[in-house]
Write a structure and sequence with these properties.
Blueprint: E1 4-9, H1 18-27, E2 32-36, E3 49-56, H2 61-68, E4 77-81, H3 85-91, E5 99-101, H4 113-122, E6 125-129, H5 131-135, H6 138-158, E7 162-165, H7 177-186, H8 191-198, H9 201-207
């Protein structure tokens, strides 16, 4: 079984070196990660799967399109930060994007049925960021849970792929596979979907070769 953390921020975006991230994640039960902040030639030889990624964000669609299709990032995994509904619809039709992320901080109704259908048709994943589930409390946490519940309802109907990430900036942001499974089960994800989502990143890369990403 593949257990891949779908987003870890390494130097300079985060404060964790690649070797420290590998060591920590192995102990936590992972055998791979999507690593924002490195390129292919920085990957050490190890039996731990590392997928270099770029993280694109902003409200300017032309700039996002330019960044996503930048040939410098050819063959990298591309994560696009979600925004309002119109932006998300455009991102889901953009060549080179693999995953729509940060929907938990997007406006209400930012990801609707039409977005879900686009994601399914184009094999673009929606990322479930788990860090807010243990960092937030009270009303803020409930808002995140409701957002994820809505995504899961749409996923059940349209069957677009999901990824699971911690979005770790430091080793202290990482959580074990077991702990993540418990958190996601509490918001209604069944174990089969959780396992499929943990291992979905490699198939996203295979099915969409025009990958790119940028570091902000």
């Amino acid at each position: 079984m593949q257990y891949i953390d779908g987003c870890v921020f390494l130097f300079q975006s985060g404060s964790c070196s690649i070797n420290r991230a590998i060591s920590e994640l192995k102990e936590l039960g992972y055998n791979g990660m999507v690593a924002c902040g490195i390129n292919q030639n920085q990957i050490p030889k190890d039996n731990f799967q590392i997928i270099p990624a770029r993280y694109i964000k902003g409200a300017n669609l032309k700039k996002i399109q330019r960044d996503a299709q930048d040939p410098i990032g050819k063959d990298q995994y591309c994560m696009a930060q979600a925004g309002e509904n119109g932006l998300n619809r455009s991102l889901l039709t953009l060549s080179g994007v693999h995953t729509l992320c940060d929907l938990h901080i997007a406006p209400k109704n930012a990801f609707d049925r039409y977005c879900a259908q686009l994601a399914a048709e184009r094999n673009i994943a929606v990322d479930i960021r788990v860090r807010p589930l243990w960092e937030l409390r009270g009303v803020s946490r409930q808002r995140v849970i409701r957002a994820y519940e809505e995504i899961l309802l749409l996923q059940n109907r349209y069957e677009f792929p999901l990824t699971i990430s911690t979005g770790a900036l430091t080793p202290y942001d990482m959580r074990s596979v077991r702990a993540v499974k418990v958190l996601l089960a509490e918001i209604g994800m069944d174990m089969d979907l959780i396992n499929r989502s943990f291992s979905s990143v490699p198939s996203l890369l295979i099915k969409n070769k025009s990958v790119q990403e940028i570091f902000e």
